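Private note to self, pasted from the team thread so I don't lose it. Backbone tokens:
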């Protein structure tokens, strides 16, 4: 089954939020839980990537400006967040794309899996450096409450497989993620996050 391209509003370029989110907030104490990455050089041969070749990409704002983008689907990841832990997988949970950015000054790779619509951006980031990684979900609404307390985020488990241990700008990347986490919002609400599946991307330079 082929997917029609889904184009998001360029009003909120997702990459700008990723830059702020990963470089500005990721160092806080409750955000960081580093785990070892598994390397599998054969992962690019998995059948899921052949299936993605037959599907149209889910497009984000930055893709509209990139005429060189090959619009084959980049993500088979199922991702969703809910206030209840045990629920059926929502039908929209696979509407994501994958983008990867290298930050040379920090020797850090940022992988973003998510999507934006007319009003919000949502998804999760994978920060990879020196053989270790951590995941962190995000949600960006139209209106941001600057006085709201930052949620407390905790990973229950996170497993990441990549096709090689080191990358640079221009490389192709193949991977698989499996994670579950939760965040406590203003000491009242608990939001559960679930992500699992294969992804791929062409690595670009992250603006500094």
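Design output:
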């Amino acid at each position: 089954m082929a997917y029609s391209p889904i184009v998001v509003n360029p009003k909120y370029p997702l990459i700008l939020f990723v830059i702020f989110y990963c470089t500005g907030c990721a160092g806080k104490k409750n955000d960081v839980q580093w785990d070892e990455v598994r390397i599998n050089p054969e992962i690019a041969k998995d059948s899921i990537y052949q299936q993605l070749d037959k599907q149209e990409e889910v497009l984000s704002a930055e893709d509209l400006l990139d005429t060189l983008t090959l619009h084959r689907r980049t993500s088979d990841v199922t991702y969703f967040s809910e206030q209840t832990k045990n629920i059926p997988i929502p039908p929209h949970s696979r509407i994501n794309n994958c983008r990867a950015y290298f930050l040379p000054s920090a020797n850090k790779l940022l992988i973003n899996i998510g999507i934006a619509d007319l009003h919000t951006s949502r998804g999760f980031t994978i920060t990879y450096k020196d053989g270790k990684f951590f995941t962190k979900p995000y949600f960006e609404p139209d209106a941001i409450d600057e006085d709201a307390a930052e949620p407390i985020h905790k990973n229950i488990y996170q497993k990441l497989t990549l096709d090689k241990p080191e990358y640079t700008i221009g490389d192709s990347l193949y991977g698989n993620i499996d994670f579950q986490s939760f965040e406590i919002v203003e000491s009242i609400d608990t939001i559960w996050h679930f992500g699992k599946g294969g992804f791929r991307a062409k690595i670009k330079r992250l603006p500094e």
